[in-house]
Design goal:
The strands form four sheets. The protein has a seven-stranded mixed sheet. Strands 7-8-9-10-11-20-21 form a seven-stranded mixed sheet, with helices on one face. Helix 2 packs across helix 4 (119-126). The chain is of the alpha/beta class. The chain is built from twelve helices and 22 strands. The longest helix is centred in the N-terminal third of the chain and has 25 residues, at 85-109. The chain has two domains: 2-206 and 393-449, 4-Layer Sandwich (Metallo-beta-lactamase, Chain A), CATH 3.60.15.10; 214-388, Rossmann fold, CATH 3.40.50. Bound molecules: zinc ion (2 copies). One zinc ion binds at residues 13, 16, 62, 64-65, 175, 417. It comes from Verrucomicrobia subdivision 6 bacterium BACL9 MAG-120507-bin52. Residues 245-363 form the Beta-Casp domain.
Length: 455
């Protein structure tokens, strides 16, 4: 029997990691780190990974899927580590950046357990990574497992993982998108039916509004930028350094060329620039739109030096595309936002998921005219414009439901990568639309059958 164990500690978007076992063989899907917890609490249930792990398959380069990879590879030296070239090129600098962040937190927060791994640990991990192509079967020595990676349309290099065994087929979606973004194409998923679907549920609690699709929000963002510039303001767009930075930069570049926004200077952060260089180098290797577009030489973003922050005077007509997306304390977007708060002609525009408890989430809740309390000073009045444009990298819940029911037609669905209310929505909808499909919310640390037991 093939079993599936959810190694994420709770039903949420945490340290995503899932273990497949068949007889003596085992394969790990992703090895993430919780985006909001600290220390070992932020890792998956690492002690449940068998010592003789055969392989690790990495779905994409987000921290909640890769942040624990150096820990897992160090503890399981015999495991093959497989990912696309896009993912490999992105995660090496990202993991080194994680070491820097943890080292800083060791000093600032007095966390003696940090860093959980070192630059040397990242290098030791990276030398054993193997590049895998899309759409080609990957065998795991002498096991019944065979895998095929399919483009997931989420960020550069992202994949959905098809899991084949002797008699069954399952699909692990990873994070995926069924619609286009500015650079990413819709996912190129394999055809159903599948026995089992292991499915991300990120947006299960967020209803899509009919008519408000990607193009709608792109135009709305550009209009918001135009209006801000017309009243002499500057725009801050808090973004993740990888993925969102490049998507928004491409959107703004094309908008400038088409005269939809003025030829404004765009500032990006140092890590954002490093990630953009990888996107440029990888532009023809991963499925995407605008395959010829080289963002650094063509969009010509300026690199923002955070050492300028203490003396920075905001200029109208400038766009600051800075990380982090959640405006985590000590990041550039967090610090620069305080300069925007008192200026009513400026704007802070969110373009992606914001955790409600993060500084970004709190600022969105406060809104223009409110007061935001980030815990480090007294509540601060927010006079600048604050808006949200849904340029998501994830499939909407409506798209996922339709796709799962009509195209994948699974007999068993395992709900992962979502909060309890998001998972509950999918569970209820699937029960209604496909009553014979078994829907499971895999309990942390407990092996369950990957495939429905038909005996
Ligand atoms: Zn992701
Ligand atoms: Zn994720």
């Amino acid at each position: 029997m093939v079993t599936f164990t959810n190694l994420t500690r709770a039903p949420e978007i945490g340290a995503n990691s899932y273990l497949l076992r068949s007889g003596d063989h085992s394969v790990l899907l992703d090895a993430g780190m919780h985006p909001r917890l600290d220390g070992w609490d932020a890792t998956p249930l690492l002690d449940q990974i068998p010592e003789d792990l055969d392989a690790i398959l990495v779905s994409h380069a987000h921290h909640d899927h890769i942040g624990s990879l150096p820990l897992v590879t160090a503890a399981h030296l015999g495991a093959k580590v497989l990912m696309t070239s896009g993912t490999a090129a992105l995660i090496e600098p990202l993991l080194h950046n994680s070491v820097n962040v943890m080292t800083r937190q060791r000093r600032e927060l007095g966390r003696t357990d940090y860093p959980l791994y070192t630059h040397r640990g990242v290098d030791d991990s990276a030398v054993i990574w193997e590049l895998a192509n899309l759409n080609r079967p990957i065998q795991i020595d002498s096991s019944e497992f065979e895998f095929v990676l399919h483009d997931a349309g989420h960020v550069a290099g992202s994949v959905m993982t098809e899991i084949r065994t002797d008699n069954h087929r399952a699909l692990y979606t990873g994070d995926f998108n069924l619609q286009r973004q500015t650079l990413m194409l819709p996912c190129q998923h394999p055809s159903g039916p599948f026995d089992t679907l292991i499915m991300e549920t990120t947006r299960g609690a967020q209803a899509a509004v009919p008519g408000q699709d990607r193009a709608f929000f792109e135009e709305a963002l550009l209009a918001g930028i135009r209006q801000t510039f017309e009243r002499g303001g500057a725009v801050l767009i808090p973004v993740f350094a990888m993925g969102k930075t490049q998507e928004v930069l491409a959107l703004l570049h094309h908008a400038r060329l088409e005269g939809k926004i003025p030829k404004a200077p765009i500032y990006i952060g140092g890590l954002g620039r490093a990630m953009t260089e990888v996107y440029d180098r990888q532009r023809t290797l991963n499925p995407r739109q605008h395959g010829n577009l080289r963002l650094i030489p063509e969009a010509q973003p300026e690199t923002f030096d955070p050492r300028r922050l203490p003396n920075l005077r905001l200029r109208g007509g400038h766009i600051y595309l800075l990380s982090s997306g959640m405006m985590t304390a000590n990041t550039t977007s967090h610090t620069i936002a305080r300069l925007f708060f008192p200026r009513e002609h400026d704007s802070i525009f969110f373009v992606g998921y914001t955790d409600p408890s993060s500084p970004s989430g709190l600022l969105r809740q406060a809104g223009q005219g409110g007061a935001v309390d980030w815990g480090d000073t007294a509540a601060v009045p927010v006079r600048c414009e604050v808006r949200y444009f849904d340029l998501t990298a994830h499939a909407t819940r409506e798209d996922i439901l339709r796709w799962a029911c009509d195209e994948i037609q699974p007999s068993r669905v395992l709900l992962v990568h979502g909060d309890p209310d998001a998972q509950a929505w999918f569970a209820a909808q699937i029960a209604q639309q496909r009553p014979k499909t078994e829907v499971v919310q895999p309990p942390p640390g407990q092996p369950i059958p990957l495939f429905q037991d038909l005996s």
